[in-house]
Amino acid sequence: MSYELWDNDEEINYFREYLRIPTVHPDPNYEPAVDFLKRQAKELDLPVSVFYPFDKANPVLVITWTGQDPKLPSILLNSHMDVVPVFPENWTRSPFSADMDILGNIYARGAQDMKCVGSWYMAAIRALKKSGTTFKRTIHLSFVPDEEMGGRRGMRVFIDTDEFRNLNVGCGLDEGLASPGEEIPVYYGERTVWRMTFKATGQAGHGSLLLENTAGEKITYILNKMMALRQTQVDRLKNNPELTIGDVTSINLTRLDGGVQSNVVPPLLTAGFDTRLALDVDLQRHEDQLHKWCEEAGGGVEIEFDQKHPFVKPTALDDSNPFWVAFKKATDELCLEIKPQIFTGGTDSRYLRREGIPAFGFSPLHHTPVLLHDHDEFINADIYLKGIQIYKKIISNLANLS
Ligand code: ZN
């Protein structure tokens, strides 16, 4: 297609309008986005509800298309409205202008993560409604706040409300990641996030002595053990090309604190780690191991968990999960190359899976460089238009499941 055709395309214009709303952290104002989405719902002739599970500044908006059999569990098309901050000086165009270049590349914060997906849902529903189709299952489109901050003001609290339970969700779609090649990843699980600080206490004193039982020796013991474990995972990943980062445990030293000056042996030294535990890690055994290292270090070492998520079972990708069968049938019919994977970071899908709801993380952003949270985030207009066709098929298959 040409610039003129893209520029006059109704769906591309709706999408660019959504991109121009700066729902940006650290203090996003969601009201303009809510107004825009309410107008979209009106265009679609579908009812809309706005909930405030956390506070008035963090709305959750749900557009509903009721199915022929409203008792059947529904399909939830979830996306987050918020986007991460920008460094405008590093962008070649204004990050909330949704500028399109001659090649059809549309630049904006949120173009990949994940206003494209929210827009795709609406565009697909618009096309399906226009064609006169109806479905067995009810479809809900949820637009949530705060995903980029872990969903504490969004999905994480919404999922515990009666309003969410009343949606009677049977299966959810949520975000995935772009991929530069033909293949599109489908995420069916996430690693378990544990963030912790080791606090080593010991004998304080003069820096000229060789004191026993110092915090320095203890924290060194812990650092060595953690780094040795890290190396096993580096090797695992390096030696098996089949594995992706989501298949192994990541361990990163993220903070080192303590001490006052270099000739004083301090009474306390701390080391903070970000760890994402692979799904095959026995969490109890792992925790026992960490405590054992603290004892071996000489005692007086404590672990303080900043985040200690429970194990969440991944979504089944076999015949036991009819939603997967329907999803896969759609992507097969569309001749899409999909690759099931474990997500590297965290998304709102984890809250659905925690409730036992199957969820697929999927953004049909193939032939697209991975630019989420990066400067000059963009999506190509043709990829966007193709995505509408992909969602039409996937949504139809899921919503028509008996
Ligand atoms: Zn996202």
**Overall number of domains:** 2
User: What overall geometry do the principal axes of the alpha carbons give?
Assistant: elongated
Strand order of the largest sheet: 1-2-6-3-7-16
- Can you identify the CATH superfamily of the largest domain? Zn peptidases
CATH-defined architecture of the largest domain: 3-Layer(aba) Sandwich
Helix percent reads 25-40%
CATH fold descriptor of the largest domain? Aminopeptidase
How far apart are the termini? 38 Å
Write the element-wise H/E pattern from the N-terminal end onward: HHHEEEEEHEHHEEEEHEEEHEHEHEEH
Radius of gyration: 24 Å
Strand residue percentage: 15-25%
Distinct ligands, ions and cofactors found in the model: zinc ion
Provide a brief overview of the structure:
This protein is an alpha/beta fold.
Topology:
Blueprint: H1 3-7, H2 10-19, H3 31-44, E1 48-51, E2 60-65, E3 74-80, E4 99-100, E5 105-107, H4 115-130, E6 139-144, H5 155-158, H6 162-166, E7 169-174, E8 184-190, E9 192-201, E10 205-206, H7 215-239, E11 250-258, E12 264-265, E13 268-277, H8 283-296, E14 301-308, H9 322-333, E15 338-343, H10 349-354, E16 359-361, E17 378-380, H11 381-399
Parallel strand pairs: 3-6, 3-7, 7-16, 8-15
Antiparallel strand pairs: 1-2, 2-6, 4-5, 5-17, 9-13, 9-14, 10-12, 11-13
Helix pairs in contact: 2-4, 4-11, 9-11
Zinc ion (ZN) is lined by residues 80, 113-114, 147, 175.
